Amino acid sequence: MLSARSARLAVFASGNGSNFEALASAASRGELGGDLVAVLSDNPQAFALERARRHGIEALTPPTGRFRSRLEDETPWLDALRERRIDVVLLAGFMRRLHAPLLDAFAGRMLNIHPSLLPSFPGLDAIGQAWRHGVRVTGCTVHLVEDALDAGPIVAQATVEVLGDDTQDSLEARMHAAEHRLYPAAVRRYLTEPFRLDGRRLVFGAAEAARG
Ligand code: GAR
Predict the structure, then answer these.
(1) Please, are residues 42 and 61 in contact by the beta-carbon 8 Å criterion?
(2) How many beta carbons lie within 10 A of that of residue 123, not counting itself?
């Protein structure tokens, strides 16, 4: 739990933004536990930016620099967050690895959603990785972001069964539906319930948090 006042949230998204949409819908129903203030994208064509505008949420494209897999200079991104007094960053399909200074400034205050049961299948095309591996159960994970690929203390997970008549497409559709339920609920819990970290374990509960 962060503070008594409503947390100010920013979303980082690179593409379609269906997870942003789920977060924005929850926020507009007053169910997110915080206020969505801005969407930042590394891709000016990202549909997530259009979705943000439709929700009346500020849409920003800070500079990315020369590299494809990371931001060359994170300072303008950090400045944009500071100018808007952002408390928590929510990664929602943001496809670049982050480093200092963003990770340092938002340590413990940055969440990500990943479409696998981490630590299985980190990285790109996680649903395809799980499908090709032949798993019987997969799912999605919301976790705190640390300086490693799709890793960090787990806030919430949801399972998705792989059915006998599934195709990769039908599995993907159920995975996205599961993500859209999980992410807003996980954000709300993270923002509104006390928790502590016990090693890698994120433990919710007032008594537990007081002991930590
Ligand atoms: C989602 O499935 C999200 O979990 C995944 O990208 C997709 C974005 O969809 N993120 C990752 O793979 C991060 N490693 P969206 O743009 O429609 O929200």
Answers:
(1) yes
(2) 10
Does residue 209 sit within a domain? no
130: its two tokens: 């799980």
Instruction: Give me the mean pLDDT over the 25-33 stretch.
Output: 97
Q: What pLDDT sits at residue 8?
A: 98
pLDDT of residue 5: 77
| Tokens of residue 200, six digits | 């890698």
Q: Is 114 a catalytic residue?
A: yes
Residue 59: closest CA among 13, 23, 113, 25: 13
In a domain, 81, yes or no: yes
H runs (alpha helix) in the chain: 18-28, 47-54, 75-83, 102-105, 126-133, 168-192, 206-211
Pocket test for ligand 1, best of 12, 19, 20, 39 (most atoms within 8 A of CB): 19
Ligand 1 pocket list (CB less than 6 A): 13, 15-19, 92-93, 113-115, 126, 150, 179
Q: Which domain holds residue 77?
A: 7-204
Question: Does residue 2 belong to any structural domain of this protein?
Answer: no
**Which whole-number Å values give the CA distances from 86 to 11, 75, 135, 164, in the listed order?**
10, 15, 39, 44
- Does residue 189 form part of some domain? yes
**Residue 3: pLDDT above 60?**
no
